[in-house]
Design a protein that fits this description.
By secondary structure, the chain is an alpha+beta fold. It contains nine helices and 13 strands. A hairpin with a 5-residue loop joins β2 and β3.
Length: 302
């Protein structure tokens, strides 16, 4: 318990924080991010809160509620997204189809548009950081976990420390450069994974216990494979969208607004999240997901 909030069961765990369901004194339910002080610096927490507050009017961003601290932890109280993360959603509903992916991607892009318009780069877009507001069939898609976000007025930000999850990092990130289109690359990786069940860039010789250097080599030197059995039934517009997002030159990648105009996301059927043929690809069955989502890099706090 801290302040007026009581923490209940744990909802998620990560390298820098745990998330709990919590209630206030009159029983209103929220989610509470609990961050150990020995792993998180105050300026990082302050920036995360500032980012959430600056985006509080966006329906596509998990809403900030309150913050506090005690001797050992920082706490960030936020909107509880009852539908859970997209990572959890596709495991719960493995028979989802291409329309489901398009709907999730479109909602994520709307959130990125709001962020990028305010000079905010998320730096860690992946299925574990995209949420569904509730359990309904048309639940809002919302972006969460702003702990790695960068605020900038520059087109390209050069940083001393790498930020992100290795499989989802853009080529320019490996040269310590971040751009709003770096988020588009990460979105492309997420889309590829949701459509095919595999990650486009990996240590292919040892995916269960990968060498990060080999993941990064794959990102820099390989092109995403969009052929084979997994891609046979996937629409050409979806393949084209993935290729567009995974353009290695960040200057040639589209903006969030431009992505939203792509045929993959503008088809009428995209409005029905549950219409269409199931993909049956089970994206989190084939990778070491527990390791993947614990491997977010943010050396600013190490």
């Amino acid at each position: 318990m801290f302040g007026q909030y009581t923490l209940h069961q744990k909802l998620a765990d990560g390298g820098y924080a745990s998330v709990y369901k919590c209630t206030d004194t009159i029983g209103i339910r929220y989610a509470c991010k609990k961050l150990p002080k020995n792993k998180n610096k105050r300026n990082r927490i302050t920036q995360e809160i500032f980012v959430m507050k600056s985006l509080i009017k966006s329906p596509k961003i998990v809403k900030f509620v309150d913050a506090g601290e005690d001797n050992e932890h920082y706490y960030i109280v936020q909107e509880w997204c009852r539908g859970g993360s997209v990572q959890d959603y596709v495991k719960q509903y493995p028979d989802y189809g291409e329309n489901t992916v398009a709907s999730i991607v479109r909602g994520t892009l709307r959130g990125l548009y709001h962020m990028h318009e305010r000079g905010i780069i998320h730096c860690d877009i992946k299925a574990g950081n995209v949420f569904l507001g509730d359990n309904s069939e048309d639940a809002d898609v919302k972006i969460g976990d702003m702990g790695t976000a960068i605020i900038t007025k520059l087109k390209v930000v050069e940083v001393d420390d790498l930020i992100g999850t290795p499989w989802f990092m853009a080529p320019e990130n490996l040269n310590h450069k971040y751009h709003t289109t770096s988020d588009i690359w990460s979105l492309g990786v997420m889309t590829y994974q949701l459509l095919s069940g595999k990650l486009p860039f990996n240590d292919k010789a040892n995916p269960g216990n990968p060498n990060i250097a080999l993941i990064w080599k794959s990102i820099l030197t390989e092109e995403p494979m969009l052929t084979g059995k997994r891609w046979e039934l996937i629409d050409n517009d979806a393949k084209n969208f993935v290729s567009m997002c995974l353009e290695k030159d960040y200057k040639k990648r589209p903006s969030a607004y431009e992505c939203l105009q792509h045929p993959f996301l503008t088809k009428t059927d995209c409005n029905d999240r549950f219409k269409g043929i199931p993909l049956q690809c089970q994206p989190f069955k084939y990778e070491n997901e527990a390791q993947m989502y614990a491997m977010t890099i943010d050396t600013k706090d190490s």
